[in-house]
Amino acid sequence: MTLLERTQSYTEEAADFGGMGSVRDYIALLKPRVMSLVIFTALVGMVLAPTSQHPVLSAIALLCIAIGAGASGALNMWWDADIDRVMSRTKNRPIPAGKITPSEALAFGATLSGGSVLVLGLVANWVAAGLLAFTIFFYVVIYTMWLKRSTPQNIVIGGAAGALPPVVGWAAVSGVVSLESIALFMITFTWTPPHFWALALVKNGDYKEAGIPMMPVVAGETATRHQIVLYSLILLPVGMGPFLLGYASLSYGIVAGLLGTAFLYYAVRVWQNREGEQARKAAMSLFKFSLLYLTALFAWLLGESVIAGVL
Amino acid sequence: MAGKAQVPVQNLTPEQHKKRRSRSIALAVALAVLVGIFYVVTIVKLGPGVMDRPL
Question: What is the DSSP-derived secondary structure letter of residue A146?
Fold first, then answer.
């Protein structure tokens, strides 16, 4: 659908006085589950940053990062409403369910995007604000509008948007982008492909029907399994990055090594089990473990830093 | 009244009225929070200097 066609269809919807969404529907537009991960990883970036900031300013900066992430989720749902209608996982989202019109989602997302960037700039600094603006732009324009529907590498490159929050958090406190914050970025960036491809293996039919060129749809399930193992291998040392760079303890290095090995084990199981229910179970196990993996690594970094601050 | 634009009558259901009311309240709360944020940030950024100005 072209931009002109979209605009015309919104005018028709507006004439129909559509979009009587509740507050809950608007919150759903912000993708609260994704937002919670963004808040968590950005918080870790803020806590690990070497400089300090007034806690009130940090809290408001974190709120801005969360709202910016939510706004990009709303803009993603605005653009993807046509394919969300087709997929079972997304057909109950507010726009395909007819609770909110695309034009309302666009206005909501655009307002929150602009507002969050401006307030972050005023509260923290313009390096962080610029990074947040870039994150929103990358997720909405580069990933949603361009890559998602044109290449099986969509989530590999698009994953950068999801990996940037700790860098934004770090910059909000310190005013700079450093090697340490890039190491945090690399963890989520390398983690994203095997995480999403595990889900894509299970939801392959959905993506095929919606015409999204996910890796299993375009390259096939076997090639996807190879890629999952490859990325899991790379993730093992990348996950240990904060220890290798010297700003996380040996205990973090050991935990990251063990969790990375477990990640690789689940990936190999996906590679081995290729048919029927066993294959589905293996892919779902990897998907669930990947969530635990990322949460545990960042939680360890956060806990370690908080304890070091107290002692 | 002559010259005044005609506003179309919208027949909303009770449920739609309820949703619109909750949206309005949420918007009011969001604006109040924003005002609070700007107030607090001003105080925090200026610190004790907020009262230090020539008369």
Answer: I
User: Is the Cβ of B23 closer than 8 Å to some Cβ of chain A?
Assistant: yes
Chain A residues whose CB is inside 8 A of the B19 CB are 20-23
Angstrom distance (rounded) from CA A98 to CA B6? 28
Using a CB–CB cutoff of 8 Å, tell me whether A272 touches chain B.
no
Task: Report if pTM > 0.80.
Answer: yes
Q: How far is C-alpha A176 from the geometric centre of its chain's CA atoms?
A: 22
Give A-chain residues touching B20 at CB under 8 angstroms: 20
What is the spatial distance between Cα A290 and Cα A116, in angstroms, rounded to a whole number? 29
B21 touching A, CB under 8 A? no
Model confidence over A37-81: pLDDT tens digits? 999 999 999 999 998 889 999 999 999 999 999 999 999 999 999
Tokens standing for residue A301 = 């970094």
Whether the Cβ atoms of residue A184 and residue A164 lie closer than 8 Å to each other? no
A82-87 contact pairs (CB < 8 A, 24+)? A82/A1, A83/A149, A83/A210, A83/A211, A83/A212, A86/A206, A86/A209, A86/A210, A87/A203, A87/A206, A87/A207, A87/A209, A87/A210
